[in-house]
## 1
Amino acid sequence: MKTRTSLVVATGVALAATAGIAPATASGGHSGGKPVVRVIATGLDNPRQLSYDDGHVYVAEAGRGGKKCIGEGPEGETCVGLSSAVTKIYWDGSAWQHHRVVRCLPSGAAPDGGFATGVDGVSALHGELWGIETFAPPEAGVPTTPPWNKLGKLLRVDQGKARIAADVSAVEFKYNPHKASLESNPYAVLALPDGRKIVADAAGNDLVVVSPQGKAKPFTVFPDHDKHEAVPTSLALGPDGNLYVGELNGLTEKPTARVWKVDPWTGKILGWKSGFGPIGGIAFNSSGDLYVSQLFQGVVTKVAHGKRTNVKVPFPAGLAVDPYDGKVYVSAWSVADRDGTVMEGKRTPGGQVWKILGF
């Protein structure tokens, strides 16, 4: 597989410097008292983007790779297998439960299952469920027969199956909108109320729009800034009707990552908020407060009325907010499989999803 993730390529240097700062429990500033966290799902494989729909939280599990190992780049070997999945988390009236609604999708990871890539993005809207699968070129040694033909594709998940809805990576190879290099890593997806889907191509530094009929085309290209490429990783629709995009730009010690504001009809960039570490996820509550996962700084940041407050979460990625009660959901230990991964000589917990109250 071409890389385990664009995330690792862009910020792997930050890992050693920050792995020790993310605690296993959460705390944080909140004017009404400290937020409280609950672990609602464990045993997940590299949980990434989240989506909330009708009382259910969906999580894209990037998987844990497999037994076939290829490549010897700066990240070492990438081991590939069919271990990626989309999982539904729900409250059954007495306890939190979760189960994989689709599984056995392509995944690549480190030999210990950490830092995977696979189905990295998920979006649920009005009972319809969509996933986005990363891309790997055939010359990387990845199989090309089904289900590996799902690489680089938008997937419609229904009745335990993932069907190809659009070829997203083909947009990069046909148009190369950003021009810096020809590479693709579709990483996040957002279903819009009008039937379109927006996909963030992290390696392409752009957004792709997919029509209800499955036609994919360029939508927004993000400029380089602060001596780094943008690397868009996360998407949200704001209460103001605009599209918001989080990016991975920069390193933890240089908080240059932005949340971009984009016109959802034209793709035009309307502005941005800056000063974040590498972003793994974004979400809004109904009041318009913005939540940002700062992946390697180990915090989820709430931006409200010009103020920023934090809750500590280890390696936070995807975010989702219940529109009715404002509870915040976040992927934690998002770079680890169910058994954890080794950092600074210590094994981390496995992938989890947390619920944050009072934030």
Note: The mean pLDDT is 91.
## 2
Amino acid sequence: MVETELPGQGVVFWPVGTGDSTTIVLGEDLVMQVDLRDMKAADEDGAVVAAVIDRLEETLPQPDGKTPYLAVFALTHADSDHCCGFGDLLESSILIGEIWATPRLWRELSEDKPMCEDAQRFQDEVERRVDATLKAVEDGKEPDSGDRVRIIGYDEDRKLHSYADLPDEYFTFPGDVITKLDGTDVADRFEAFVHAPFKDNCAGDRNDTSLALQVQLKADDATVGRLLFLGDLAYPIIKMIFENSEAAGNADRVEWDVLLSPHHCSKKAMYAKGGDGEEELKQDLLDQLQTYASPDARVIASSLPFRDKDEKGNNPPHLLAREAYESITDYEVLCTGEYPSKEEPRPVVFALEPGLGLELVDVTDLENKAHALHAAGGSRRLLAALGTTRLPAAAFAAAADVPHPRGTDAARGGVQQARGDKAEPAVQIGFGAA
């Protein structure tokens, strides 16, 4: 197994097939997980998907010296490719401080709609936390870490469900900003702006009720990295997010450096039926995505490798979507099932570097830094990545497909010139002090 350090601040997109598992590292013992797909196939010899729960157990901070601590788990929606393994996560040694849930599951339960076992385990855990929070409030206390819950979104059936009795501070709605994780104020290094789910879609398809967020990570020098998460939303609601943000004067809340492509790089994000009933490319949304993308913006497809061609009935990822994203950015889409190779995919890691922003990390470089720290007597925890063969740094550079120095690439060149190529960057590697 190849081992690599997590960034002090940044994001990890795990290779989990066509599904989502994203780990956001804030630093100072705070880590957030958005969705989970941990399959039994991850335990097989030669697996090309990550055993995410095992990796988290090995790498999460341990503030008490023994318990892996996950500050927040957020579920965008309860499809199995977004919550697979949640029951195993609950039974692991990991403490989940706070859970973010949308009202959708209560509606599905009341309408007796089928859901997978892990979605039911998630809902049972959220119900337990609602009860624990109501008991704490009744006793005049704050709920403990491990019992906290946040309900994001509004449902017209709210009064019919147990969460309706929670005090207002446990609810968050589109247009709100979250700057507190598991009871800790993190406004100096993190913001999550809530875009969806919208009230008008509360009775729509499950995908249409996905949690959508813009996450901002902030370095000590005020450098900001922007991540856009749109769940499994399709064109109509994504378009609404951009239109509402512009109309409300919140256009900065759809700016992005890294976009997790909706629905695993599905063409439904930018293709929809036109006036003649035929499917057509919606260039208006692509134009908006391009307008709010940073110069070095990157798109992630959390999916299996792309097929040679799209055919009717194919599930994502879709080549049409990849081509559309690549028409508005200067870089190829990074597919978690192909990075840096289909045979040995590794987690796609971005670190927040002061003065630069979110930088694609060469995991072999992080491994070398980890070895140097251990040789110097450090005791930082390591992230065990996928694969059995260590890839050369050149393979990652090729996968990044950097066409020419520009934006942060040009800035990085200036930094290297100033400090020398072999000098260590100022960015923190790992979860704080050794």
Note: The first helix runs from residue 52 to 59.
## 3
Amino acid sequence: MFRMVRLEAKRSIALLLFLVVAALTRVFLWMDVQQWAASWTPLVHSMRGTAWIVLPVVLAAAIWHGGRERRAEVSELFAATPRPHRVRLLPAFLVFAGTAVLAVAAVVGWAAVVVAGNATFDGGEWPLGLAVGLLAAVAVTLVGLGVGRVAPAPVAAPLGAVMLFLALTFAQVRDDRPANRLVDTVLPMLPVTDDFHRVLPAFSVAQGIWFAGLGATGVLLAVAVTSRARALALAPAVAGVALGAVLAPSGAIVPAPAATALVCAPGDDRICVTQVHSRALQDLIAPARKVLEAFAEVPGGPKRVQEDQVSWMFDDGRPTAGADLDTVRVALPYRTREGGIRWEPEAVLSIVAQEATVDPGCFDGQEEQRRAFDASGAITAALLDTPTDKLSPAARQAYDTLRALPIEERRRRIGDGRRAGLTCGDPLAVVMGREAGR
């Protein structure tokens, strides 16, 4: 068997398929590296997301290979050999399915090394998500081989690739349609998620059942010799999609409380980040302490700095009417395209100071946001002695106004401006000493 597999690999396009699939997976994963470089859940999502470009290539190659015998008009010659039909096709199944899996797995292995160097949380579900992605590649390969034997025409391979590509591309547009268990189960991609949420294992199991049935259909198509057998070959795929849709949970994406549990600085519970981002804590401590110390004499100033546990993607956010003025909640850009966590102290200080003075979610219009950010810049410069050369004219005027005030009055006005900025008022008007309003 090993000799036959080796010969099949040498006389087929398996090596070319391996190189193309590995290259495509690598390129499209690298384009999204800033999203997954420090967390396992986004890695699974990004890896599964490459299916829209990788699987059509796999399908085309498998269809082309599956129709090779009939295009060369040697089907009757091979049928006359003493080897059973199924045994003769087994090397093609092993070579092409193995090629697709090894190509994707090799790139995922590289990505896993990157994530392992940065991740601080392992929810335990990611191996199952990756395994289902590999199973999808196997299933599409087997279906391609079966379709190729049924329809050996040269146009079948490119036509199949284009149809699958278009189907997956349009299926990725999820914003305009509600969640659908049948559609989401069939797709090789995962529903959108983030670091603070996880995909239920039951959903991955349901997808695995569907892809197993699809692969079985591919095998049966490849070995079928009659029209009736080809029709019956569809049964595993139909059963798989039906069972998978029934078993799939209605809400596949759920919060991950363990990921959002807070981890605080040693000996200082005022500064905390989420467990999934705890590696970033060391870069937050110094800027956060500087902001807290600067606001210590400001009436109503913040008492702690915490990473925001609210997901901008799934959660509606906190009502501003009940805003916690004692806590600065920050959402920090902690990943880079190099795959590491690199925070510049000045950038972190700027982010923490801004979040301490205004809530950007309060202001819908550009003019309102501009005024809020001008007020934030003026307060930050006056309180932290940060550079003023990049302040806008309005922010500079507000800064000069604050600097001209007596120290106690300046602190009081900064506190009032901060309260206005966090409760959807007009912080710039307050800082300038005018009547607060919108």
Note: The longest strand covers residues 268-274.
## 4
Amino acid sequence: MEEYIKILLEQIRFEKAHKAIGDEIRAHIEDQAEANISEGMDKATAEKKALEDMGDPVETGIALDKVHRPQLAWEFVVATLAVTVFSIILHIFMTKQLNWGLAFQISKGHIVQEGTMFVFYSLVGVAVMLLLYLMDFTTIAKYSKIAGIILLISYFASLYWVWMPNPDSVDYEIARLFNDLNSRVDSLMFLMIPIYAGILYKYRGQKYGGLVKAVMWILICTFLLSFYDGKYGFETMAITMVCMLAQLTIAIKKEWIKVRKAPAIIFIWSLLVLPIISVIKTFSLYDFWYEEITIRPIIRSAKLFGRGQVSGDSIDCVEDINILTYISTTMGIGIAIAVIAAILGLIIYGLIVTAKTKNQLGLVMGIGCMMWLIEKVIFNMTFGFGLFFDYSSASFLPFISGGLRFDGLLASYAMFGIILSIYKYKNAYAEHVDISLRARSKDMGV
């Protein structure tokens, strides 16, 4: 039997799937052999007959190789590139239409238009997406605890600058270092979503102790992400917390953490209530006053299709938070709704792609990434239509606006890159996979 399995596995090029396939074939042969024995055959004859029923090991191995080879969701990639082209055209159009322009100083005496920068970062984003596609998503899970701890410690250290009572008294170079650290780490905190999926997977098989540790990760992230430039950053905190709670809910339902499901799920979601109440109390009347004198009148004056009564020059943060406001007043609310529908359709397609994987780790990680994008769309939509405003937010519309320093644009493509990696191995990996640091696996897929 072992010689048969060895020959069969030699035909399968994706080595990471060998163990799972070998175990599955071995179990199938043993089950068939036991069935033959129950029919009166001796053990040797029963096993020989079971192997004959499996067919030629080379032919069987070649057939399994076609099933378990890495794949690429070409339709998903084409749809993403189509949205990329549309967003590039939109930003080039905006740069030409706005009288005051959108420009960035990249160095002393060198000014680059926002449209040009958006094209550059869009191409970088596509490169990031393809790079993460080449990477095995289980690598993120394998080093999840280490990466999560480093990310949180870095973010906590960066808050030293935010909480500093008198930053002017600090040496200029040190102050600039902390300021740069805060801006860079803040941009990377979206990585906690895929990282948390790996952390949860490492708690698989644990009981209430695992649940407590999983909840502690959520609470620590919530506390740290609540601060943005010294203010209560509701959007980042809420989006990250909801994504992590959803991932933990799936982990409980999949019995990664063996606890009573209904009470545990009710308990973890109740954690969201207190932060929401706290942040509502911190909102000032300025927020509602701001949206009433700026965004809402612009939306009211917009037409269903065509240019509205308000010029795009009158809109603040048009390239990020209020890009939907700009689209509504220059092209029509109908076009803005169509843009939202296109982005949500692309993200929902990503959810469908994720749902096709039989690997539970990929499922939880992918759903977390897609939920992050969906929540970003919802928040930006409420800002753009004047339904809600948070002056501490650096909101963006995935793939359509760049976000602060274009970090939101790159994060959007990174999330899709992880989804492509999950889809790539949707048939290659079994339901569960070994992500221990001792496991022999390559970081880069074939």
Note: The radius of gyration is 26 Å.
